[in-house]
Structures are given as C-alpha cells and as structure tokens.
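Render this sequence as a predicted structure.
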Amino acid sequence: MAVVGDLRVLLRLADFRRLLSVRLLSQGADGVYQVALATHVVFSPEKQTSPAAIASAMAVLLLPYSLIGPFAGVLLDRWRRRQVVLYGNLLRAGLAAGTATLILVPVPQALFYGSALCVTAVNRFVLAGLSASLPRVVDADRLVLANSLSPTAGTLAATAGGGLAFAVRLALSDSDAAVVLVASALYLCASLSSLRIDRALLGPDLTGPRPPLAESVAGTARGLAAGIRHLAAPQRRPAARALAAMTLMRFCYGALTVTVLMLCRYAWPPLYHGVGGADRGLALLGLAVAVSGAGFFAAAVVTPYAAGRLGPTGWITFCSGAAAVLLPALGLTFAPTPVLVAAFVLGLITQGAKIATDTVLQAAVEDRFRGRIFSVYDVLFNMAFVAAAGVAALMLPPDGRSVPLLVTIATLYGAIAVALSRFESGQVSHQ
C-alpha cells in the first residue's frame, strides 16, 4: 500500500493534481480512440477485413511515435507546454470528430487513415509535453516518484478508455462513429481541464537566444547517431544484444497480435451462422487483450525475482526459449482456450524481457547518453511491431490460421534464445 500513500502525498500538490487530471483524460481518450480505430478496421460487419488492413491500422497508430517522437522535444522547448497540451487536445477533439464523420460517409480508405494518423501524430507532442512538465509541478525530492506514478496512472486510464470503447461498441450495434465521438468528447475535456493550469507554469522559460529550428533538428539527429555509436562500443555489447533480442521479440509479438485479431474476427465466431458473430468476436478480442494484460502484470511481479536469479540476460534467454517451446504447443491448435493461455504466457514473456532489457540498458549506458538510447529503443520497439504486421499481412490467410507463420515465429524465438545463451557461455569462459 506504499504506492497509495505516495500518491496521496503527490495529490496534495494542486498543480500536480491539475496536470494529472489532464493526463488521465487525454490518455483515457487515447484508449477509446485506438480501440475504436482497431475495431472499425477489424470488426465492422460491412468490411471484409484483411491482415493488410490491420497492418495499415497499426502503422497509423505506431509510426508517429517512431518518426516524430525523438524530435518532439525540439519543438516543446520552443512552445509553452500548457499551450501544447491545450491546443493539442483541442485539435485532436476536432480531428476525432472528423474521423467519426468519415466513418459515416463513404470516403476513400486513405482519407480515413490520414485523419487517424493526424490524431496519433499530435498525441506524441501532448504526451511528451505532459512528461516534460512534471518538474514544474513537483519538487526535486518527489520527481522520481511523480515520474513513476504519473505515466502508470496514464496507462491505467488508457486501459480504462479501451474498456469503455469495448463496452460502447458491444452495447450499440454499428456504433464505431459513436465510440470515436466519445474519444472526441474526452479530448475536449482534457483541453478544457488544462485551462486550470497557469499559462506560464509548465515552461519552458522562453528567454535568451535559441538556435534555429533546423539546427536543433539536425542536432537531435546527430545526438541519436552518437547514442548508437555509444551503444556499439565493445564494452556495451551486452546491452546492444539485449536491445536486438527485445526488438526481435517485439516483432514476434506483433505478428502474433495480428494472428489473434484475425482469429477473433473470422475463425472463432460463427459469422456465417446468424447475427451477432462480430460482437462475439469483439468480446473474444477484449478477453484476449485482458488476458495478455494480466500477463504484463504478472511479469512485473515475477521479473525482479527471476532476473535476480538468472541475471537480466539469462531471464531474456529463458523467456525467448519458453516462447519457442510453448507457442507451437498452444498456438497450433488455433482454438480459443489454448490461444488465450498463449496470450497470457506471451504477455508475461514479452513484458518480462522488456523489463530486463530496460535494466541492462540503464546499467550499461552512460547517463549522458541514456535519453538518446531510449529514444532509439522506442523507435525500434514500435517499428518492429509495424514490420511484424506487414509480414503477417503477407503470410496470413483471411481466417488467421497459418502454420508457417507460427512455426517461423517459434523458430525466431528459439534462435534468440540460442544466440543469447551462446553469448552468455562465451562471457563465462572468458572470465
């Protein structure tokens, strides 16, 4: 219950409460919008969903994080962050309302995806602005605590928003536009909530000369390149290997996510036997997401002990090896119960490996390079997921039952485990 006590301490700070309320509303809206986009692409009864459509949706959701994320700070150091949060959420409210209109009116699919891409692109600035504002609303002694609890609360809000979207979608037939309008309303509430924060409070202090924008962007790119060179140094090869392994595991998880989406849409619910099949598929998807989320939570509990016993790299090796064994045993049935068990296991394995990778990077990378390395990490993490969706789009049949894809992914997990174990053995023999 220490976390509850810590949160109570922070909530006594009025400015922190106001900033947190904006985050909760904003990320809650993100959860609603992202689920609305995914379910519209996958579960609309009038659509013949394909893996390629799912890959396009994932690209829309994740590419802005990858391409814009490292450079968001350049602009956030030039604009008042309160205004970024205010107008960013207001803009997203309008764009989301436009997306709802595009759902109702027959338009080219590219226009729909373009609208969704704009919403998620603006989101990157808003989230970065919220994080950059924390030092302005809490003192230095509480900053680590605030950095831990605030993003966690935002993630829970996004999860709750996703649950709200599922509930609205299941309660109202053909309600994709209505769900998107719920997200639009929440974005508007987040924008209005930011008005309670003083305009200048969140910074930055816009005094003194600043370098030209082009120079700042180029400097950021050079900084990322310097971070990659730092990671490539011989003494940091364990961290580089852990990052490479995590990127490949994220790729595997992305391909399996598309597989489960297609199974929920076509293979499991009897769509051709009466009304309500799409809703049953949506309910199954919600269950799969919940089960996978439980695996993520379990990883947070298990990983500190397991990584302590095996070492972070040893734990990553164990996770990838376990996935190589369990995925064929559970996944090749293509039946709901074994695949849901696999969703829990893979959620635990993927998040457990990520926690261990974070630990390896934090320990191996010098502090002055750490921010840049984690920016590269973020790019690789999201690009791997998008690439996996593209590969799955090429390999998956419409119903999601692909033995070659699952065997390929299991083999890749096995290759990761073998490569890491050989590296660990080599390390021991040199000691």
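Summary. Residues 332 and 403 are 7 Å apart (CA to CA). The mean pLDDT is 83.
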